[in-house]
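Reagents: none. Just compute today. 3-deoxy-manno-octulosonate cytidylyltransferase.
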Amino acid sequence: MAVCSSGSEPSGSIGKGWIVHSLLIGAAVAAAAVAAHGGFFRRLLWRGGYRSRVVGIIPARFASSRFQGKPLVHILGKPMIQRTWERAKMASTLDHVVVATDDETIAKCCRGFGADVVMTSEACKNGTERCNEALEKLGKDYDVVVNIQGDEPLIDPEIIDGIVKSLQESPDAVFSTAVTSLKPDDGTDPNRVKCIVDNNGYAIYFSRGLIPYNKSGKVNPQFPYLLHLGIQSFDAKFLKIYPKLAPTPLQLEEDLEQLKVLENGYKMKVIKVDHDAHGVDIPEDVEKIEALMRERNIS
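Predicted 3D structure written out:
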């Protein structure tokens, strides 16, 4: 398994989403919220536009129970963290993209291909806490922080733009994320996190188990199950609050950090996109990603 050396320029965007439809719904909900609570939400507006200053942070750690050194594994000749960074740089909504890591080997690799790096503590419990520490160390006033999973080397820049715009258009939400259609074969895979949303596009719950779960105990091939994509954006002010919130029972049981947001009563906007999920969770996923890239002529 090879480690770091930088490669060539990124290829074009993969796939198109159902993002516009989701954003229109979000805008309508936002308009209703402002109409009902105009004074409160107007006080939330920043000069120069609502939540207009956006930073993308890619948390990366070397230690992993399932895949040690995962950010540095090569995907067709490039470190995975480089491929993720290159695609994030293509997003039009991001003013700045940085890698946040506690490992000097990863930091050296990232600086080698031109990425800005923020060194963070080994004490961070998850990617969200690492993003918060990186935001503090950046020392700049950002309104939105996008937590970009370093193990999504084929992340679509349009999805990044979609969740940012969704959060900007949902003043009652502090968090936004994306889902796509779940393949029936992934229904019982605990590494594929499922999501259910309400009629206005706000998250109800996330689970490693199949949700909803019918009384037959089997995956219903006709039901539109939703797969959570790891990318998420936070209101920067809320991100500073997040580490101070005590761990919650559902968060600990499912080992899903976004559940702490829901259990504390905060709202989370969800957009649905058309995207094949190609995250790297275990070493065997590398071959699958490389096969897909060859199939699509991605270098």
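Residues 19-34+50-292 form a domain with the Spore Coat Polysaccharide Biosynthesis Protein SpsA; Chain A fold (CATH 3.90.550.10).
Action item: order primers for follow-up constructs.
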